[in-house]
Amino acid sequence: MSTHSAAVPAAKPWWRFGHVWLLIAGPAVVVVAGFVTFWLAVRQPDPVVAEDYYRRGVEINRTLEHPEKSLVPAVTGRNHAATPAEDQPRPR
Question: Where are the annotated segments for Disordered (predicted)?
Answer without folding.
Answer: 69-92
